[in-house]
């Protein structure tokens, strides 16, 4: 049995000391870690995900099935403009370490990272870093003050009981205690190693004489040397030549492992980030249906047909949202094509069973039932405003590139409730009235034949068909007109005024994606 792996994401505001903390904890560095990117060195900040690892004795509270636990650290950038990179890294973590500069407390990106943590993992540790900058005489008081503030913030989240640890990564103060707290809080997830293999690639590069290396994290399933993998986006298949886990050769990689996979005859320029997989585990999607939940701290626009940044795994793409909801509590919960849904102009805060159609600007790689995070990354990064807007899980993927013109959406029964009002111009006989202004001249009134209408005098009627060529229609009143209606409709020559006219109201449902444009009541 291989060494179990545990992924810890290190997140926080820019310059809070995340990379320094990763260095102080790590024993082995990967090919992408500690700001090796030349631009990172030039700018002095983390620009991409960094990976490193260390081993610890297997936590006693998890039993004695292993001697050691391999801990993989995912160092995420903290700059506001790199939020989509953070989102991409967060979906592979088991625990999150939220790093807070004790001299500054919670900052804008600290709060955004906390929200990402709430969405993507159940285990959080808060590290108050740079305690060495506080004089020893004042240190305990400052730690207590910031800890109290953070605990108050966390009290409104699912992390209200999380540990807050103080340390100095730069001076190696408190690091041993931090490792001990990590060990005591490890919670190993049950991973799917039996299904199709899915591997999230975060770096791809070539080694002369060896081949092309995919480094990343195995999300599900397993693969062995000489196994065949598919490379999403390229439609190519390649055989696995060799594999390593932090510079050690292995024959098998399973769900949860951080690894490097070597293949031959593949141009590294064809893939920067993405998925490699077996079977049919990955789809190339053009639109998605997700269950939708609003991030409570988001205060921006929440109207249908608005464009947002949509993040699925490592990919972030612009897309348009269409909100819809279950009209009854009985139809709430899981999405089903059997149900009818009500179109929503804006996100209905008070409703359960809210969903969204996401129409993507370009095709993305997608694993069914993945989490989707929706944000507005175009908002001012210097504003103390939450840019994370919604989250949800994929309920249905639309893979047809021509979904707007073919039948891909026809089964999605989302309706708008429409109302039209016309005027009963005159009485043809006591069972028939002629109505104007209910339709335009060019309207095909045959589509509305047999729909029910309501007269302002109380009668119910049914549209019989058109009357002439000016948009007027004939309405049948099966029970006959009331005396009050007859009196009002006899005033043919008099101009309509006040309550002296009889109005006719038509209410119907029209399905957004029905090509036949049928109407129902």
What does this protein structure show overall?
The protein is mainly β. It contains seven helices and 31 strands. The chain has a 15-stranded mixed sheet that branches. A seven-stranded mixed sheet has the order 2-3-4-1-5-6-7, with helices on both faces. The protein has a six-stranded antiparallel beta barrel with strand order 8-9-15-12-11-16. A hairpin with a 2-residue loop joins β19 and β20. The longest helix has 19 residues, at 136-154. The chain is elongated.
Name the features.
single chain; about 525 residues; 7 helices; elongated
Question: How would you summarize this macromolecular structure in one to three sentences?
Answer:
The protein contains seven helices and 31 strands. The chain has helices spanning 18-25, 38-43, 83-90, 108-120, 136-154, 175-185, 483-489, and strands spanning 5-12, 28-29, 50-57, 68-75, 95-101, 124-129, 163-166, 198-207, 211-220, 222-224, 228-231, 236-245, 248-250, 252-254, 258-263, 274-277, 283-291, 293-294, 307-312, 315-325, 341-344, 354-366, 371-375, 388-398, 414-429, 432-436, 452-455, 460-466, 473-476, 503-511, 519-520.
Task: State the end-to-end distance.
Answer: 62 Å
Count of helical segments?
A: 7
Helical content stands at: 10-25%
Q: Low-confidence segments, ≥5 residues, pLDDT <50?
A: 34-47
The total of beta strands comes to: 31
Based on Cα principal axes, name the global outline: elongated
Radius of gyration: 31 Å
Query: Strand fraction band?
Result: 35-45%
Give the overall pLDDT as a whole number. 88
- SS class: mainly beta
Main β sheet profile: 15 strands, mixed
């Amino acid at each position: 049995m291989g060494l179990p792996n545990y992924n810890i994401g290190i997140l926080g505001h820019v310059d809070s000391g995340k990379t320094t903390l990763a260095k102080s904890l790590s024993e082995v560095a990967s090919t992408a870690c500690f700001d090796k990117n030349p631009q990172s060195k030039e700018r002095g900040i983390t620009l991409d995900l960094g990976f490193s690892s260390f081993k610890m004795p297997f936590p006693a509270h998890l039993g004695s099935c292993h001697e050691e636990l391999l801990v993989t650290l995912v160092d995420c950038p903290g700059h506001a403009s790199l939020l989509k990179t953070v989102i991409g890294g967060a979906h592979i973590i088991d625990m999150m370490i939220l790093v807070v500069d004790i001299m500054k407390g919670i900052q804008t990106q600290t709060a955004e990272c906390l929200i990402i943590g709430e969405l993507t993992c159940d285990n959080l540790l808060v590290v108050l870093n740079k305690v060495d900058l506080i004089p020893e005489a004042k240190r305990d008081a400052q730690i207590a003050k910031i800890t109290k503030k953070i605990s108050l913030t966390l009290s409104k989240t699912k992390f209200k009981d999380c540990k807050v640890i103080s340390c100095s990564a730069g001076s190696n103060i408190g690091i041993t205690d931090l490792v001990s707290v990590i060990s005591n809080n490890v919670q190993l997830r049950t991973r799917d190693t039996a299904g199709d293999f899915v591997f999230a690639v975060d770096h791809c590069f070539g080694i002369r004489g060896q081949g092309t290396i995919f480094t990343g994290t195995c999300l599900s399933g397993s693969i062995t040397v000489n196994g065949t993998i598919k490379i999403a986006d390229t439609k190519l298949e390649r055989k696995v030549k060799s594999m390593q886990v932090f510079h050690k050769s292995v024959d098998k990689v399973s769900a949860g492992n951080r690894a490097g996979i070597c293949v031959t005859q593949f141009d590294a320029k064809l893939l920067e980030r993405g998925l490699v997989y077996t079977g049919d585990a990955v789809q190339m999607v053009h639109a998605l249906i997700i269950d939708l939940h609003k991030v409570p701290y988001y205060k921006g626009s929440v109207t249908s047909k608005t464009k947002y940044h949509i993040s699925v795994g490592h990919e972030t793409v612009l897309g348009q949202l269409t909100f819809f909801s279950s009209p009854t509590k009985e139809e709430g919960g899981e999405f089903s094509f059997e149900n009818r849904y009500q179109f929503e102009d804006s996100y209905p805060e008070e409703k359960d069973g809210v969903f969204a159609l996401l129409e993507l600007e370009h095709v993305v790689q997608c694993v069914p039932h993945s989490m989707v995070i929706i944000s507005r990354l175009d908002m001012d990064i210097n504003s103390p405003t939450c840019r994370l807007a919604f989250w949800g899980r994929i309920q249905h993927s639309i893979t047809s590139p021509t979904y707007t013109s073919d039948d891909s959406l026809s089964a999605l029964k989302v309706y708008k409730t429409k109302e039209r009002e016309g005027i009963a111009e005159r009485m043809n006989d006591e069972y028939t009235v002629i109505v104007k202004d209910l339709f335009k001249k060019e309207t095909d009134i045959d589509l509305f034949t047999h729909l029910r209408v309501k007269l302002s005098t109380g009668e119910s009627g049914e549209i019989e068909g058109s009357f002439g060529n000016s948009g007027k229609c004939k309405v049948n009143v099966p029970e006959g007109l009331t005396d009050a209606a007859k009196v009002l409709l006899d005033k043919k020559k008099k101009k309509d005024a006040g309550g002296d006219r009889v109005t006719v109201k038509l209410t119907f449902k029209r399905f957004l994606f029905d090509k036949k444009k049928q109407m129902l009541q």
